[in-house]
Input
Amino acid sequence: MDFKASLALIAPEILLSLSALALLLVAAWSRNSSRLVSILAAVALGGAAFLAAPALCAGAMGPDTLAFGGQFAADAFASFSKILIYVAAIACLMIAPRFFDRQGAMRPEYPVLVLLATLGMGIMVSATDFITLYVGLELNSLAAYVLASFMRSDDRSAEAGLKYFVLGALASGILLYGVSLVYGFTGTTSFEGARAALTGELSMGALFGLIFVLAGLAFKISAVPFHMWTPDVYEGAPTPVTTFFSTAPKVAAIALTARVAVDAFGAQADAWRQIVIFAALASIVLGALGAIGQSNLKRLLAYSSINNVGFILIGLAAATAGGVSAMLVYLAIYVAMSLGSFVVVLMLRTAEGEQLEGVADIAGLSRTQPLLALCFAAMMFSIAGIPPLFGFWGKFVVFQAAVEADLVALAAIGIAASVISAFYYIKIVKVMYFDEPAGVVTGKSDWAHWLILGVTTLFVSPLGYLLTSPLGYLADKAAAALFFVA
Amino acid sequence: MGGFPILSVMLLVPLLAGVACLFVEAKAARTIALAATLIDLALGVVLWLNFDIGGAQWQFTERAPIFAGFNYALGIDGIALLLIVLSVFLMPICILASQSIEKRVGEYMAAFLFMEVLMIGVFAAQDLFLFYIFFEAGLIPMYLIIGIWGGQNRIYAAYKFFLYTLLGSVLMLIAMLWMVNEAGTTDIPTLMQYDFPPAAQTWLWLAFFASFAVKMPMWPVHTWLPDAHVQAPTAGSVILAGVLLKMGGYGFIRFSLPMFPEASAQFVWLIWGLSMAAVVITSLIALVQQDMKKLIAYSSVAHMAIVTIGLFAFNVQGLEGAMIVMLSHGLVSGALFLCVGVIYDRLHTREIDRYGGLAINMPKYALFFLLFTMASIGLPGTSGFVGEFLSLAGIYQANTWATLVCATGIILGAGYMLYLYWRIAFGVQKNADAAAMPDLSLREWLMLGPIAAAVLWMGVYPESFLAPMRQDIAALDARLSRAAPEGDSHLAPGTPRAEAANAVGGTHDAGHGEAEGAH
Output
């Protein structure tokens, strides 16, 4: 084992872990350093993204990307996901101070926890061994549990943290049980070994292992039927944390699921495909139906994220490089839409600075805050997948991949169900544009919020289509790396 | 025209003007919108004048590979040309008709200008997915137009419009993805020549039908239309009836018929059945309406059924008739909605009973209204006659029973339109406020005058409109001929006589030739 080469491959992770430890010390020594720590954490994330980029641009794949004897892969697929995760994390660092300052709860631990969670996600997306997978997953989850209850004086936040912890621990248990079954029936924890051992007829025990592993992962990506925690946690957690949950960890968990499915269970595509198809359709339908009655924007967006996971899983169900590429494109667009939507929720505040999150609060927003309403409407139409907004492109590539993989019926049912979800997205637009102003959203917003909202709105606007070529090119490279079999 | 990208410019002008309208005051927004639509009208005229009749099938083509997965490809044939000209012709009139809009003028004008971009885009797109993007994107501005500036029940109407048309369209997207996967190209002209396996055509046809039937709208999925029309502002109704409904017909003529000829023949009875039902049922519904806009909305559904019956006659006459009905209906129903708007602006009610005897105090208005009423009925000399006659003559060759049922639509149409006109314009002036309404203003003259001229032009000399699309219709007919269902009228062309019928001392067997000719 060549340690030097291995260490070079995990450069982003080394940078992040050292920064996290150093910043933890800074945080311990000086309680008022939250601003400085945030900036340094963002710089570290930017640096990590910079270190991860070459692998993506070069389309790295194969044995050269494997570190520590095949436990960790720094290939183009991991790199694509990492860059997405790091960018989302930077955005979540930028939007936090204004929110927590108001509650007097901004502490330097927040950026440190985000860094640690991001580190865990980096390990997740690079994992090529069930042990690495579990280490990354738990590092991410433990940081996330603390983040969910970061506003410790707030009952809802504490409840969200506890709920997340209990259900998350259960899911980890299910996952570990699955991993142990797979290990028992294949004699290895490496993805490559599992793939080699799981050819031909699948034994009952190995099948159970596969199902348990996928069930554990379905919890992490909040796919139906393991989605119940999502609305509660999203609603209870502080809004910047919710923004974080709906973007970075989602990318990590989905990328991880894709790698496990394609890599470890690659020889059993037919076995997991039906699970993925079921989860995809159930997520689309339940995510859409669940959102209809919601009066809290964060809860509504939680259901929307469940709904979106369904569309992403359709790309995975195709089980082709094209499908994974489509999935990654969708993820990139989804991260932008999700960031934009939650930033809008963050920007809904009264003149006194109190946060608002009710659907009724945004009534007539188009007349009191026209620009904010326009951005939010663009986000909503985009998530609904109405062209010419860029959200349509995500759905388009995913369904294209499904059709190319001969899953026409799945694509038809999925897209027909998307009409249900369009109902509540246009309901938001209706409340903002057609209703009489409620006049409660009067507060000024931070420049960081406007910056992120502006960038994401431009991204989902029709101008985003100019990015279809580079985005598709990079996603194709990443998908090719995932499907590379030595 | 050389390399001047006229279609892109036609898209760009209203787009930029629309963005500008979002940021300026009401008065400036009105001026910008009017100027932009007039520029587009001028460009539309240039387009028509430079269109080489009998030249290449696709003209003014532009192509730019700036997207992955699909192309930015524009180009028009005669069919698209006429529909684009119709759109740019109606737009300045819509802007003029929007003077009574008081709230959020900038956004209103922007929404209309974006609509214009999308309408031109739909007709000019030469790439399957580019077409879909333009086709679907129209939902957003229309949703806002109905929802913000509509009448009392606007929110329900906006939802209904949005969800109905979205559900129809998404299935078409899946069908498009399948087609592109099968044929390996997104180029519409290539796909129009591609022979899909007949078994697959059935499903593809149904998916496209789901979308176009809702847009058209065909009975029984027409129910969004009366709601949307009644609640939309006047200009919204004009655009909806004038151009948006044409997207369904355009879809049939551009996609369903040439791409899936076998499936079209297979489902011909479905179309005929629905069209016959639509003509009779919606005409009867129109007869009992108390709301002017609703009445015209139902009459639109009946007219669109004449379009579908003509399209699925599988012959040149039917196709030409369908196109002319579309153009004529675009002008006439638009004008009728404007006529309703004129008196609605004065009295703020659409209830027919609140008017009466308007011919006394508004003679000029009554004259215009009469012209458009007659054109809607299909009186010879107006555009409606040409289209309806050709459509019915086309379907007669294919099916005489369908012709019989659809022709009753003309009679019923005369019934409800004349009944409407009688109640509004004739009789005694039973309402004092209606009797005090002033006649047309200059602005209203400018709105109605050009449409009236176009209606008469199309009615007296339809050749101007038939010539550009003759070649395209012939090509479509040639493509359809292999699948055309056998007609039941068995027309036998008679032998022409040696001399004129009124020639003195004609031959004795003249009666024989007459009998054949009249068949």
Observations:
- Residues 155-186 of chain A form the longest helix (32 residues).
- The radius of gyration of chain A is 21 Å.
- The longest strand of chain A covers residues 66-67.
